[in-house]
Design a protein that fits this description.
The complex is a heterodimer of chains A (about 375) and B (about 350). Chain A has about 375 residues and is an alpha/beta fold. Chain A is built from 15 helices and 17 strands. In chain B, about 45% of the residues are buried.
């Protein structure tokens, strides 16, 4: 283990906030802390980086307690990327990154040619060579995070600690930054410990996840073990909405009330309609979905009720009966444009049924265009 | 891309050479201008060849003008570097000895000495005034340092400094209520600052204090550089923040206390000059800012003193009057341009 905590207790002003923290990161691995705001992710990281005094327990870096290393030795082994905003006056990106050489340079901070090479290498690693001579205060947020990451790399650490490195970034820069992290963890064999807000991204870049909530670490494990719908719901105390483990995405809560439409969906064609209904706060029912269909995942989160059939099976009488009952209860029947094949041929029966009872029917396009009118009409 | 760094190194050298040229010009102008004008060539002759020893010209130059212009230069430089260190400490461009109440503290103790000691004994030796001003300055910095242990917020500390300054002014005004008119006049003339008291003996002490502080500040330039990224990053690079901040504040207050002690409070040099120096060399790197800042402050104060002496001769202006007149607009311009940069 490059970095390890043993029965660590963290908190502010001598008051314990989280206790009994045992975590460890090996070379080339990425371990991520996730959890709601204010859960103490930052407190843990700040204690590990010695920005906060520990309350109990030990933090080992390179098999020695961080309190046994002197400042310089520790700085040569562990570097950080913090959440604090920095705005140095008249400082170029090269200069910012070169500060990473701090624990290695002489009393006046003179850079040797080797130091300069390491600075440029670090800039290259975060794909920001061309920013070297720009003023740090005049580049974008995404670029700044990359420069600060380059600074941390320039310190040539064995352990890299990052506190929410993706805040302030748009999705493209988030992905870019995490991508860089992933590749440098394996290329430079650095142990990376970070905290993230975005649970979907956390699942994708981490080798190990630690859920921080309450006064101890409730759960940690491989992303597959940690990321279950129920655990995410519990970790973030989701009252409304849900978390879809399969997609690693968050869904909003299903709209309340009686269903105002039955959507004949499948093959992913239903998703845009489901989302639209949700945005308008309209409850709906849908069917007949096979459980291996993407529509099924979203429908499960958003629909009032779903008629579903097991994967690779055929639609049977029970499904048809359930669907017909739903159609009866809804003022509107929408055909999402789902192709009909051998497996779901019986869905045609539903269309016929809706026609036969004189249900107001709409195609997908008509529905999307005239959502508002259709809704009013349907209500009447 | 190395080109840009080479360019900035050249820029630094050019600026330093330019400042040195101005410095030389300042020496000549200061030496030959005054109630008695002495031609520049004669000035050289007197200084380098010891010509006309014992003549009036020689006496004016050796006993009055030379110590005065050198004092102005060294103290001006010291004040600018002190301002730069304080701005680094407070991460605030308007931090300076004057703003932080250091001058008010010095004035308070000096006022106390003038009004009560002079009142009781009739006269005091000049070194006691110097000592009084030094004690006053250090007292205030000590107070600010004491409060800095209790608050981490630098703007808050700045406000505390300003408030302490007000308290000192109030106490000074309280003394003044019981003072004789003559003492009040003395205190007022002291509090506007002047290099007119310069003498070789003092200059020796000044050079020793300033030289040592300057050397220390150069050794602080590495952690200062890292500190520009904030306390958190500085700590992660292995800096002992407490020690560093204590060193920074001690060095800067010794510098400004030294200036206040020997020349009285001089406003705006500490705020304006570091900004000018940084803009000239287009860099904020302490290792290069400190020397540039010192030279720039030396030149600035020499020329301000020249104006103070000659503009309304034979009446001499207070040095604070001139530095404020030129320094304050610089600060205003700087604030406006900073704001524009951010938006």
């Amino acid at each position: 283990m490059q970095i390890e905590t043993k029965k660590l207790t963290v908190g502010y002003g001598g008051k314990p906030l989280i206790s009994g923290i045992n975590l460890g990161v090996e070379k080339g691995k990425i371990v991520t802390l996730i959890g709601p705001n204010g859960s103490g992710k930052s407190t843990i990281l700040k204690t590990i980086t010695r920005h906060l005094e520990r309350i109990a327990g030990v933090v080992m870096v390179d098999n020695r307690s961080i309190h046994q290393w002197n400042n310089k030795e520790l700085a040569q082994r562990m570097s950080v990327m913090l959440t604090e905003r920095v705005a140095p006056d008249l400082m170029t990106c090269f200069e910012v990154v070169s500060l990473g050489r701090y624990p290695y340079t002489n009393a006046f901070g003179r850079l040797t040619p080797q130091d300069e090479d390491i600075v440029m290498d670090s800039l290259r690693m975060v794909r920001a060579e061309e920013l070297a001579d720009h003023l740090f205060t005049q580049i974008s947020d995404g670029q700044r995070q990359r420069i600060l990451l380059a600074r941390a790399l320039c310190q040539q650490p064995e352990v890299l600690v990052l506190d929410e490195p993706t805040s302030y970034l748009d999705i493209r820069h988030k992905i870019e930054l995490l991508d860089i992290l992933r590749s440098l963890a394996s290329r430079k064999q650095v142990a990376v410990l970070l905290s993230l807000h975005e649970i979907d991204l956390a699942a994708k870049i981490s080798d190990w996840l630690i859920c921080v909530q309450g006064d101890s670490i409730q759960l940690s494990g491989l992303p597959d073990q940690v990321f279950t719908d129920a655990q995410m719901k519990a970790l973030y105390n989701l009252q409304t909405g849900s978390y879809n483990t399969l997609f690693g995405s968050v869904e909003l809560s299903p709209p309340p009330g009686e269903p105002s439409a039955f959507i004949l969906a499948g093959n992913g064609m239903g998703i845009p309609l489901f989302r639209l209904m949700q945005k308008h706060g309209l409850s709906f029912t849908t069917g007949i979905l096979f459980e291996n269909d993407v529509d099924f995942q979203v429908a499960n989160a958003l629909a009032h009720q779903v008629v579903s059939a097991p994967a690779f099976s055929l639609v049977d009488d029970v499904h048809i009966l359930q669907a017909k009952q739903m159609i009866d209860r809804s003022p509107l029947f929408v055909h999402a444009g789902t192709p009909i094949g051998q497996q779901n041929i019986r869905c045609l029966e539903l269309t016929e049924y809706a026609q036969s009872i004189g249900k107001r029917m709409l195609s997908k396009d008509a529905f999307l265009i005239g959502m508002d009118e259709a809704y009013k009409g349907g209500k009447r | 891309m190395n080109k840009a760094r080479v360019t900035s190194a050249i820029r630094f050298q050019v600026v330093i050479l330019g400042l040195l040229a101005l410095f030389a010009l300042g020496i000549v102008l200061n030496a030959n201008t005054g109630t008695v004008n002495i031609p520049a060539l004669k000035v050289f002759d007197i200084i380098f060849n010891g010509a006309d020893a014992g003549s009036m010209e020689s006496n004016i130059i050796w006993k009055i003008r030379l110590p005065r212009l050198l004092t102005a230069a060294v103290l001006g430089g010291a004040l600018s570097v002190s301002g730069f260190l304080l701005q680094t400490f407070f991460r605030n461009p308007i931090a300076g000895p004057f703003v932080l109440g250091i001058s008010s503290g010095a004035k308070m103790i000096v006022g106390f000495v003038i009004i009560f000691v002079v009142g009781a004994y009739g006269t005091i030796p000049p070194y006691l005034m110097v000592l009084a001003a030094f004690i006053g300055s250090m007292l205030i910095m000590g107070l600010v340092l004491f409060f800095s242990r209790h608050t981490k917020s630098m703007p808050m500390l700045l406000v505390i400094g300003i408030m302490v300054g007000y308290i000192c002014s109030a106490i000074t005004n309280f003394f003044i209520t019981f003072a004789k008119d003559q003492d009040i006049a003395n205190l007022t003339s002291w509090s506007m600052g002047s290099f007119s008291g310069a003498a070789w003996g003092n200059l020796g002490i000044i050079c020793a204090i300033v030289g040592l502080s300057l050397l220390l500040s150069l050794f602080l330039s590495k952690p200062m550089d890292a500190y520009r990224l904030g306390e958190g990053y500085a700590k992660s690079m292995g800096i002992n923040i407490r020690l560093f901040r204590a060193a920074l504040i001690v060095v800067s207050s010794v510098l400004s206390a030294c200036v206040t002690a020997f020349a009285g409070p001089i406003s705006f040099v500490g705020i304006a000059v570091p900004q000018i120096a940084k803009l000239l060399i287009k860099s904020g790197k302490p290792l290069v800012v400190i020397p540039a800042c010192f030279l720039c402050g030396a030149v600035f104060c020499m020329f301000c003193d020249l104006i103070a002496r000659t503009a309304f001769a034979p009446t001499e202006l207070a040095i604070g009057t001139v530095t404020s007149l030129f320094g304050a607009p610089v600060v205003i311009a700087m604030m406006i341009s900073r704001k524009r940069q951010r938006t």
